[in-house]
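Need tokens for this chain, all 78 residues.
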Amino acid sequence: MPVIEQEDTKQQIIERLDAVPPEKLRSVLDYVQFLSVDRDWSLDPSPLTERELELVQEARDDPRPNVPHSEIRKMLGM
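Here are the structure tokens for all 78 residues:
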């Protein structure tokens, strides 16, 4: 696996975020926050907390149809 310098990575993130249209930045931030959750739901056998269930329901109620998951992944270079 190649070593990626931290500064290079930060610069790549900055460049990609600069390319995101302003009206889509909130969706990108929401997605990044979702990805940065400490627990991996697929591996965690414990049930979700009440607050986590509320957040899941919130996401289901507001699926952000204007910004598909694949587009956000592409914008972030994933």
